[in-house]
Amino acid sequence: MVLTVDIDMLAGAFPVSCRFQAAGGNAVAVVGVSGAGKTTVLRSIAGLVRPMRGRIACDDDVWYDGQTGSWMPPWDRDCGFVFADAALFGHMSAIENVAFGLRARGDKTAVVIQRAMEALELVGVAGLAKRRAVSLSTGEAQRVAIARALALEPQVLLLDEPLASIDVEHRGPVREILLRAIAQREMAAVIVSHDPAEAALFSDSLLVMEAGSVVQRGTPAQLREHPLTRYVAAFAGVNLYRGVASPGQGGVSEVDVGGSMFTIVGTASGPVALVIDPDAVVLSRERPSSSARNWLVGSVAAVVPDGPSLRVNLASTPSIVARITRRSADELGCVPGATLHATFKASEVRVH
Amino acid sequence: MRSTSAAMRDAALVTASVILATLFVLFIAGALLALVLRVAPATFAAALRSPLVGQALWLSLKTSTLSALVAALFGTPLAALLSRPFRGRAILETLVTLPVVLPPVVGGFALLLVFGRAGLLGRELDLAGVHVAFTTTAVVMAQAFVAAPLYVAVATSAFARADVRQIEAAATLRAGTAYTFARIILPPALPALAAGLTLAWARALGEFGATITFAGSLPGVTQTMPIAVYVAAQTDLQGAITVAVVLMMLSYAALLIVRQISGGPRLWS
């Protein structure tokens, strides 16, 4: 199953255009600052807004085709939408919210409640079933909203900042539930996030939008090594790694990033995303004996101007980007091919 | 520390406001009280059982209830339509609100010119054997003409308060337009609809001008309570007072109910 999106439209006064494909069982992450047009793209896939031209199709099922003028209303599209603000039906209980879609679809009354309950259990909020939607906290409401979208087992799952309103400590489990559902049911997922680290935890395939258009797409490593715009360099161009954490001793944890071990502050376990600002990475000609816990070595792959500074891509394992002044670069002999050491403190690593 | 003159100015404004408000309440309450004070307890019970009062009371309750139901039947779909933006909505909304400010006699006259024997549809209706003018049906039509816009206005604003995000969420959950209306937009609007219905009922109960013009004043057929008051005021004063007092109590009760349901005397919110 493949979702194909190729649209041009107006969001208010400014143009938005976007083109990508998402295969069943995978997620595509659309990242960018708010106002970049990310949500508009999701809304047009769901059919809540109509593009000006282009095509949206789920395999051979055409949802929108600007050339033939064909248009499928939202309720006929096999797609689920998790809104950033949950958008639960306030006058209903949690389970009635989840049952709504099943009833609207015409499922038999006998199975509706059972399926709704299963969806609530999947997201770990079965205990909230009888609670009125208005009495739920924003985090609880968002989990119910996720259950509501998953209950219909749609082919396409659209997630608009799905974890933003959930407490940081609960994000991991909910993310895992979503990822498992996407993989098991082979849904094509599109996730919108303003946080590249969050997005990277959902997908290896990032789409960066700026002012209504896609400025770059690729894996986190590709964006880091070759950022095409200042925004990508500053936000998506940070050093972003996915790894598996295990608690160590002395208030630190060890994170396995593809075989290389990183040290982070605090106790963490399970899948994590690590973010290290390029400004926090220190380059040196020899391995320094310092308090910095993390060390990588590699040859300089590229030196790219970034405002008054330079971005230095080091072909270490994993690769890392450091931002240093031109003067430091001169003194270090920082030219492509030179071997350099990169160090950063455990406390400089932001953990997601 | 405020100056003495500021404090005096403040006190003077408060005093003036209290006086104006009191005069206004006296104006309304005084007139109504005058009516109640004219009731002779001994004859009130007897007058209540008289044919004049009994017929008018029964006819009024019947017709205003029917008018309110007619308003709900035709007004609910219209309100649902008017609660969503579309081209020309302002023109349509103003048109259906017009009877609220139009003199009711003009409305009754207009209805007569359409449905009366010499009216626009009079010939066709006559051939079909349907006579509307000066019947109880005409009473209901006249009342609905005047009262239904109140229901439509209240219902429109209730439907317009529906959360757009919830409507969109419903659309992504396989719910078509009608299903979304029934399950998402309608339930939270029900208290407001009940208030609108009661308001329309009270307005229909008090309808006079359109009714007497289009339906006349036939006792037991078209002579509703307001018309009975008007007619009896010239011949049977105690009867007129009795009907007027009953009318007043019913209207007051209806407005109290509207207030209870909607949490305030908001006609348009």
Would you mind describing this structure in some detail?
The complex is a heterodimer of chains A (352) and B (269). Chain A is of the alpha+beta class. Chain A folds into two domains: 2-236, P-loop containing nucleotide triphosphate hydrolases (Rossmann fold, 3-Layer(aba) Sandwich), CATH 3.40.50.300; 239-351, Beta Barrel (OB fold (Dihydrolipoamide Acetyltransferase, E2P)), CATH 2.40.50. Helices cover 26% and strands 37% of the residues of chain A. Chain A contains nine helices and 21 strands. In chain A, the strands form four sheets. Chain A has a six-stranded mixed beta sheet with strand order 7-8-9-3-10-11, with helices on both faces. A five-stranded antiparallel beta sheet of chain A has the order 2-1-4-5-6, covered by helices on one side. Chain A has a five-stranded antiparallel beta sheet with strand order 14-13-12-15-21. In chain A, a hairpin with a 2-residue loop joins β10 (205-210) and β11 (213-218). The model of chain A has no long low-confidence stretch (mean pLDDT 91). Chain B is mainly α and 269 residues long. In chain B, α3 runs parallel beside α7. Chain B has twelve helices and no strands. Chain A binds chain B through residues 46-48, 73-75, 77, 79-81, 83, 85, 87-91, 100-101, 104-105, 148-149, 152, and chain B through 163, 165-166, 168-176, 179, 183-184, 187-188.
